[in-house]
Amino acid sequence: MPTLILVRHGQSQWNLENRFTGWWDVDLTENGVAEAIAAGELLAEKGLLPTRAFTSLQTRAIKTLHLALEACQRLWIPETKDWHLNERHYGGLTGLDKQETREKHGDEQVHIWRRSFDTPPPPMEAGSDYDLSADPRYAGIDVPATESLKLTIERVLPYWESAILPVLSSGETVIISAHGNSLRALVKHLSGISDDEITGLEIPTGQPIIYQFDGAMVPGERYYLKDS
């Protein structure tokens, strides 16, 4: 039975500091490392061992994947890194303290930027301290200046269809280590969640979410591995 494991990266330094992160490359905290290891230990305990892995180009997701795979003795499996699984780009909000941003722009405006389906934050200015257009990992990629959840979905789902689904269809157990919004895109698609409802779905750090597929590649109900 093809099985999909989704894991949001462990707590990052900017999660801890309550800052908008997006595409900026931030490392895990000690707690984030522990969450990633615990995810891998849970996979081993439940006997759910990945055979193929996908992740983004961002350190927090890559490290989470490696720590989890090491904990379940699967560090050797084939792994693909791709920018289509990156977090949503938070544009001009990148690096800002979330509470200070609320005080400056008001709760309602910040809520719209964070939780609306199709309203992106203000674009990042070229040459900003957080401008990644010259980062070598994104060479040849048109780095966005900002993204809504809708725009994030529009890059994640074609990658899912072209790169991940064929692997899953061949009977592999696939683990994806990614981010809150890139995983929201997949959960929305797989669980048939509406545009309005998906913005309120919280995906906790370091907690494996499982989908099992039938012979027609129809996903069953998602569940948290800890609850199985």
Instruction: Give the biggest beta sheet.
Output: 6 strands, mixed
Radius of gyration: 17 Å
Count every beta strand, where a strand is a DSSP E run of 2 or more residues.
Answer: 6
Order of helices and strands: EHHEHEHHHEHHEE
Oligomer: single chain
N→C terminal distance: 16 Å
The shape, in one word, is globular
Number of helices: 8
Strand content: 5-15%
Mean pLDDT: 96
Query: Which range best describes the helical content: under 10%, 10-25%, 25-40%, 40-55%, 55-70% or over 70%?
Result: 25-40%
Poorly predicted segments: none
Strand order, biggest sheet? 3-2-4-1-5-6
Secondary structure class reads alpha/beta
Brief summary:
This protein is 39% helix and 11% strand. The chain is an alpha/beta fold.
Structural commentary:
It is a single chain. A six-stranded mixed β-sheet has the order 3-2-4-1-5-6. Helix 2 packs across helix 3 (59-71) and helix 4 (98-105) crosses helix 5 (107-115). The chain has helices at residues 13-17, 30-46, 59-71, 98-105, 107-115, 149-169, 180-191, 195-198; strands at 3-8, 52-55, 79-81, 173-178, 209-212, 223-224. The protein is globular. The model has no long low-confidence stretch (mean pLDDT 96). The protein has 228 residues and is an alpha/beta fold. It starts with a strand and ends with a strand. Helix 3 links the parallel strand 2 (52-55) and strand 3 (79-81).
